[in-house]
């Protein structure tokens, strides 16, 4: 009621459990339970020793994507290069659409076979295959199948914006796990699981926003940590998959009871082709299928046909290889242009973005660049426990000329605003 009337506003800190219990003359457990219910309902957020604060009730947080009609040069949207997406219509010519009716398998058998061939080598044995409407939809469904509002989920910090929004909308508590150039840190994950995290979301390569990927040694350590917690739900979001120049590193221990590997096609075939493959254990698969059966919310077979046509097309395979090489080239162009100006980005990097660490808020820097015609993404929205000071720079459509111009301007603005860089390592 107080949040609805405006008496309590977003960001306002609530009294400690001890203080409120004393004020009201009730048991501390009663107050603690009330705070948990507020967190589960999405009204408040618990921050450990930092206390409990009122959440914003204004709707979803910052979103990915470009600003429609913006005159700014786009280095902030996180979008793939439209010129490197396949011609889906041409691919579909080889696979004419066949109408399906209620009662047919939710996953086309041909597509399931292709997915199984693709994912089986990177999963524990006895996997099942399901489809969702993209990777974020998969994460939401997986968490809803196993957790309840108020449960803790360990995620990389900084974390992908859409994942942060999905977790908050579900009333789940995020436990940030620090990352470095080799990906999620194993000691930090151990601490998060000790704090009671019931699930963990891991990006094995092309982490957004940092661009880091798991090394073989780090993946081995993470797998060992997770092996000690076999009941934790392990979600691996391999969103860049075939476009990545980094080898996939397996973190799912054989003894894991609940696990899922997600591979979407959004970066390869376009964000509007809303489909992701989910390989998982049998129990998780059964829970997913309760909501993905015919007549409820299955993935359209028209989309499935489009994906199957693309995956089986030699021309599309060449297009994917071309895009993979192109993104790597663009990352190099931008990183080298910045290096010439004495600006170090996090490295090594994979994916559609580069990450420029800063020691202070990026807001003034983002505004100054916008005033000069450049759109970049401030890093603070990616942070969990603490703001992630930095810039995320999307390289999808960069050219040598634009990279040089942007790097010169960025150097100028950094000097004018007396910004200080952090280490170039993620």
From TrEMBL:
Gene3D superfamilies: Type I PLP-dependent aspartate aminotransferase-like (Major domain), Winged helix-like DNA-binding domain superfamily/Winged helix DNA-binding domain. NCBIfam families: PRK15481.1 (NF012025). The keyword DNA-binding applies. Residues 54-73 are annotated as: Disordered. In the C-terminal section; belongs to the class-I pyridoxal-phosphate-dependent aminotransferase family. Keywords: DNA-binding, Pyridoxal phosphate, Transcription, Transcription regulation. CDD domains: AAT_like, WHTH_GntR. One of its GO terms (molecular function) is DNA-binding transcription factor activity. Residues 1-57 form the HTH gntR-type domain. SUPFAM superfamilies: PLP-dependent transferases (SSF53383), Winged helix' DNA-binding domain (SSF46785). It comes from the Bacteria. This is DNA-binding transcriptional MocR family regulator. InterPro entries: Aminotransferase_I/II_large (IPR004839), HTH_trans_reg/aminotransferase (IPR051446), PyrdxlP-dep_Trfase (IPR015424), PyrdxlP-dep_Trfase_major (IPR015421), Tscrpt_reg_HTH_GntR (IPR000524), WH-like_DNA-bd_sf (IPR036388), WH_DNA-bd_sf (IPR036390).
